[in-house]
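Name: Glutamine synthetase
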Amino acid sequence: MPFSVLNVDIFGRDIEGSPLVFASGDADGLLQPTDRGAVPMPWLDGDAHLVPHWMFDESGQAFAGDPRQALARVLDRFSAKGWQVMAATEIEFHLLSNAQGPIENPVTGHALVHDNILSLNELDQFEPFFNDLYASFAAMGIPAQAATSEAGPGQFEIDLTHQPAMRAADDAALFKMLVKGVARNHDMAATFMAKPITDAPGNGMHVHFSVLDTDGRNIFDDGGNQGTAVLRHAIAGCLAAMPAQTLFFAPFGASFDRLVPGAHAPTGAAWGFDNRTVAVRVPAGPPAARRIEHRVAGGDTNPYLVLAAVLGAALQGIEAGTMPPAPVIGDAYDLKLPQLADSWDQAIAALADPILFGIFHTDLLDNLRRTKQQELRSFADIPHDNWMPHLLEVL
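Structure predicted for Glutamine synthetase:
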């Protein structure tokens, strides 16, 4: 398979001037199956299976432009310390009508227009969809937990269980394929667009992670409510890298519609205990489960790149022994904080920040920069109100 296949834009086009295309003769890489094996695709008719692969060159070296390899590169650094990262995702999505408008209540036939956060009634109304979805999770080996009705009309969240970080990323990627496929079978469209409905809440992908030592002990657990110094070092690393990493959390121009201050999508680099207004949250719970929740990424992101960015930044903080500022108590939106890049072009420019070079291979950063610059030029010719048809099917 050509290396360039892993470096196309959202429209499926080669990247102009990419060294992976004509300059290299559009050379082939070598796809190798991951350890996941064949995964059933229950939303399709017949006995269809997907076999996940990742990319190497012919000498067996990992292809730096493969997002899964980027995460493996970060996890190898944890493994070298005798540590295993455990991670989980919380992923939000919207169900829309096939006409891309508000979804109708399957029971009453009326369009859903009101917020119904944590509504059991709304979940009940979509019971056939969720029954099929959870049966498919079981068939695919995806450990899904609770589904909740979120704030927006037809918006839902499903939490996946903590597990080794690579498996968590694999499951998040498969999860998104599955939700979209099952929705089509129910004459709906599912989208993970960061902000598919202008006046409704956006879709996020929150990442939770902890780190186990060789004895299986959580290195963030100090036996109390505050967590260890290593926890704080990891938080400091996440905060320091956050502005430069904006593009990994908001990869498209439309992603920035979600990043509005005061709208439950953090735009400032801050942390706190059990505080949902901050970007990096330490959830409440028993000390043995002490973990970090990174709340910035949108639902339209690549799970491998998001986990690589978050975990790579955390490791930088741990290795440097840096400490974060004091935790925020109360409303972080009222504070003056270091901010994410506030536009797509600024986020692309931030890829030149040296803090990223210790996390990602420079080839991946260069490929990503070229890809996003091409997409930026393409969307400049499309009115903002017309972006959705170009994004709905692929995000």
